[in-house]
Design brief:
Glu/Gly-bd, signaling receptor activity, Rossmann fold, cell membrane, postsynaptic cell membrane, 8-stranded mixed beta sheet, alpha/beta, 5-stranded parallel beta sheet, ion channel, binds glutamic acid, D-Maltodextrin-Binding Protein, domain 2
């Protein structure tokens, strides 16, 4: 009992009774608001602690509560407090900026130190300096700079800034200088209570996933709750909360996977902060008996009050030791002024304090010049310090998390996430899988197969995550609508956070890159031309007639008949063509002309066929006439020969294009691209004149030459009549088509070089991991293997491996082209045979009449002779008739008939 009494007395003596025992006692006045409990607690706790451990002086406190928005009431209260007390060593507070000026001006007038810790007002620091006011709150310029540098370190390209009031705008001034507000990259919006959804919805609609919120921490939970209702706390939404107290919120109740970053000025890892939190129990926040006191509950204003109180009391004590501090009663209306206040205030401003819970306190130009902002991330409800910014090194943010730790966190994130992969149907990247059993309905990932799926599956196995394929709306790749300022297709899915990844034959373009990030390319390609191979020409056995127009053929026929007649008459006129029939008679009585119609026509025909004739005209005029015919035939036959080869070659090859230039130069073959794809963008935005010309042609073409997907383009190339449509397509897809459809071919080389990549949100933490996987897959040949599988093996690949490309050099004349020549020969010979038969039977008839034998007998004899092919001599029945003695002649002679000049065979 007595021991207990002694110890209680000792404690009392050490604390309350000091000044009774002639320890110097000073009074500190403090002004608080009804709702500033934590600050008041920190103040009281600091004073109590000082009094406990200091036995030279003792501080007594006088506290007044004043309203926040009533400066007059504050003035009254402070003056009354001054009146009622013997004198103050200093005045503390008030915490609110709105009435701080009142206390500040009283303190300045009566020359009394005034310790403040409220955040800098919008006018501060320019309009600031008061000799007696010591504000331990960090300098506004430093705060602006620190916030801006932190935002910069987050590397956000586009973000929305949601602010509370004018002070927020001032606080974010440096952030706004980072990028011009109003441009597409930054959206600035005021958040109006109580329904924040209106603004949040717009932010979501515009696709902003990086959001800076400058708002009082009291309202932050409500704002985030509403964001959650709108699905804006989903993965890859990133928030930066500028409130210095945001870290004290209970993020566990949000149960969100969004990434939240904030800043604090209290080092939550420091022992000092822990000591403060534990000793002062932080008012009503933490039960006094709690053993686990989270430093994360320490708000910045109580911390600043704690630091301010300690700062003042220690400085006062130090001065007191050398120079006894005298405090006198001062009133608002009195003439009295503080005696040592000026020295004390100045001493505090030159005395740096290293050990406080808000970092080192140092003053420059009457303002706190030191500031260290701790950057903390809230991950799965817990705070992790990731970096810090210090006013001592204002241009950089120092990362405290090692790369290894960072990677471990990312790996953990990847592992615990089911990746949503957005894609589109398009061969061979993603296709519906045919079930083995027709009745089976495939669901989820099992419903698809293809190159994209194999890639994602492989990456998922390497990184140990699960994934789910979803199809994008309208099967679009992703193009930007400049008027609506919106994206569609896969890019929209990424921007709307509907998918973690997007994969298909999605080309990496600069425009898309400004909205999303891409992995390293998993395939390289370029734009080329898809066209059909020359089609087998239509059957036309009389194609040999085509080189000359039908009119020309008719003219030749007419000329043949006319020239025959002309020659007939010319030779009759020309004396040179009247010849001596008997060479043994130098003066014959008669002259003979062999140029009857038959011989004339034979001569013209022989020369037409370039065969000549065994008889030729001898007269000058007739020779002149026949020369003109030969001249005509020379020209016609050489034109025919030249035309025939050109005609047969071109008709087999069809219309020819070799490259984009030749396509651009002509108007006959139409060409188009996929609507809304990167190929279309390539032509639209090209500075190269050929491509500009091609774009002009394509955009003006009617009907439209644009198609909705590659399959439609391929179909159009194949079905457009006379090969009059070419499709500008990416070389990888052309390769896929030409592997299967041997009618198709690629024309010319690549117009550009680019790659397909996996799209993902900007700054996605898993980008590095996915890139490593792609590199690895490239190096170990996995990507090549997948390509081989989907291009050359699956679904009919490799069908056109040995299909030689037709070229003009190996064009041959097919029977189809010149079969007509054989037909003509056949009919000609057939007619000749018929004529031969006719002549045969006429001969039989003549003999049977002449020799008075039956037709049958003569026919049999003549036919027998016809079959005796070894016999080359025949009896001349006319001679045997006129010279009966010669009937037994075995030899025959050939004579020229005067009447017809023809040769007659002699019978044996
Ligand atoms: N790969 C293209 C894109 O990503 C689509 C096909 C094309 O435009 O030819 O937009």
């Amino acid at each position: 009992m007595s021991l207990k009494f002694i110890s209680v007395f000792l404690v009392w003596w050490l604390t309350k009774a000091e000044y009774v025992l002639a320890i110097d006692t000073y009074t500190i006045g403090a002004v608080f608001h009804e709702d500033s409990n934590e600050i008041e607690t920190a103040f009281k706790c600091a004073v109590k602690r000082f009094n406990t451990f200091n036995n030279a002086i003792f501080f007594k406190t006088v506290i007044r509560h004043v309203p926040k928005e009533n400066p007059f009431a504050v003035y009254e209260a402070v003056c009354k407090m001054l009146d009622e007390n013997k004198g103050f060593a200093a005045l503390f507070g008030p915490p609110s900026t709105s009435v701080a000026d009142v206390v500040d001006s009283i303190a300045s007038k009566i020359e009394l130190p005034n310790m403040q810790m409220q955040s800098p007002s919008s006018l501060w620091p320019e309009d600031s300096s008061n000799l007696y006011t010591i504000n331990v709150h960090p300098n506004l310029r430093n705060l602006q700079k620190g916030i801006a540098k932190t935002v910069e370190s987050l590397q956000w390209k586009t973000y929305a800034i949601l602010y509370q009031d004018r002070d927020s705008i001032i606080r974010l001034q440096e952030v706004m200088k980072l990028s011009s507000i109003g441009k597409e990259s930054v959206l600035l919006k005021k958040l109006e209570p109580p329904d924040y959804r209106l603004v949040l919805k717009e932010v979501k609609r515009l696709g902003y996933a990086h959001i800076i919120i400058d708002y009082d921490s009291t309202y932050l939970m409500e704002i985030l709750q509403q964001a959650k209702e709108l699905g804006m706390l989903e993965y890859l939404y990133n928030y930066f909360l500028t409130s210095l107290d945001a870290h004290t919120l209970d993020f566990n109740q949000l149960d969100c996977i969004a990434n939240i970053t904030t800043i604090t000025i209290t080092d939550t890892n420091s022992k000092l902060t822990y000591g403060f939190a534990k000793e002062c129990s932080l008012g009503r926040i933490i039960p006094t008996n709690s053993t686990d006191i989270p430093t994360t509950l320490v708000k910045h204003e109580p911390s600043l009050m704690w630091d301010a109180a300690n700062f003042f009391m220690n400085a006062f004590h130090e001065l007191h030791l050398t120079n006894h501090q005298v405090v006198r009663k001062l009133t608002c209306d009195g003439e009295e002024r503080g005696i040592h206040s000026f020295g004390l205030a100045n001493y505090m401003k030159i005395r740096p304090i290293p050990n406080t819970i808000t970092g080192k306190i140092n003053f420059e130009n009457d303002h706190r010049s030191t500031l260290t902002l701790q950057v903390v991330e809230i991950m799965q409800g817990r705070l992790r310090k990731t970096a810090y910014w210090s006013a001592a090194d204002p241009e950089s943010v120092t990362v405290v998390r090692t790369e290894k730790e960072q990677q471990e966190l990312i790996d953990l994130y990847i592992k615990n996430t089911t990746f949503v992969v957005s894609s589109r149907i398009g061969q061979p990247y993603l296709m519906y899988k045919k079930p083995e059993d027709p009745d089976e309905v495939l669901e989820g990932n099992d419903a698809f197969e293809g190159f994209s799926m194999d890639i994602i599956d492989h990456i998922a196995k390497m990184l140990n995550f699960s994934y789910k394929f979803v199809l994008t709306k309208n099967n679009k790749y992703g193009s930007f609508d400049k008027e609506k300022k919106t994206w569609d297709g896969l890019i929209k899915d990424i921007l709307d956070r509907k998918a973690h990844l997007a994969i298909c034959d999605l080309t990496i373009t600069q425009e898309r890159r400004s909205a999303v990030d891409f992995s390293l390319p998993f395939m390289t390609l370029g734009i080329s031309i898809l066209y059909t191979k020359p089609k087998p020409q239509e059957r036309d056995i009389f194609a040999f007639m085509n080189p000359l127009d039908i009119v020309v053929w008719m003219y030749i026929l007419a000329a043949y008949v006319s020239i025959t007649l002309v020659m007939f008459f010319l030779t009759r006129l020309a004396p040179g063509d009247w010849e001596n029939p008997n060479p043994n008679d130098p003066n014959p009585e008669e002259l003979e002309n062999i140029w009857d119609l038959k011989n004339a026509s034979w001569l013209i025909l022989g020369s037409t066929m370039s065969q000549g004739c065994d008889i030729l005209p001898k007269g000058i005029s007739s020779r002149m006439g026949i020369s003109m015919w030969w001249f005509l035939i020379l020209i016609i036959s050489s034109s025919y020969t030249a035309n025939l080869s050109a005609f047969l070659t071109t008709s087999r090859m069809g219309p020819t294009i070799d490259n984009a230039e030749s396509l651009a130069k002509q108007n006959k073959i139409k060409y188009g691209v996929l609507n809304g794809g990167s190929t279309m963008a390539f032509f639209k935005n090209s500075n190269f004149s050929t491509y500009q010309r091609m774009w002009a042609q394509m955009s003006q073409a009617k009907p439209s030459v644009f198609v909705n997907d590659n399959a439609e383009g391929v179909k159009r190339v194949k079905t457009t009549k006379n090969q009059l449509y070419a499709f500008l397509m990416e070389s990888s897809s052309i390769e896929y088509e030409t592997e299967r459809d041997c009618e198709l071919k690629q024309v010319g080389g690549r117009l550009d070089n680019k790659g397909y990549g996996i799209a993902m949100p900007v700054n996605a933490p898993f980008r590095g991991s996915i890139n490593s996987c792609i590199l690895k897959m490239q190096e170990d040949g996995t990507l090549r293997g997948f390509k081989e599988k989907w291009w050359k093996q699956m679904h009919g690949g490799g069908a056109c491996k040995n299909e030689p490309e037709a070229s003009s050099s190996d064009m041959k004349l097919a029977l189809d082209n010149i079969g007509g020549v054989f037909v003509v020969v056949f009919f000609g010979v057939a007619i000749a045979c018929i004529l031969a038969l006719a002549e045969f039977f006429w001969n039989v008839h003549t003999i049977s009449v002449e020799e008075r034998k039956s037709h049958k007998e003569v026919t049999m004899n003549e036919f027998k002779f016809f079959l005796s092919v070894w016999k080359t001599k025949k009896r001349n029945y006319k001679a045997s008739k006129s010279h009966g003695s010669l009937s037994n002649m075995t030899d025959s002679i050939t004579i020229k008939s005067k009447s017809n000049g023809s040769l007659q065979p002699k019978e044996d």
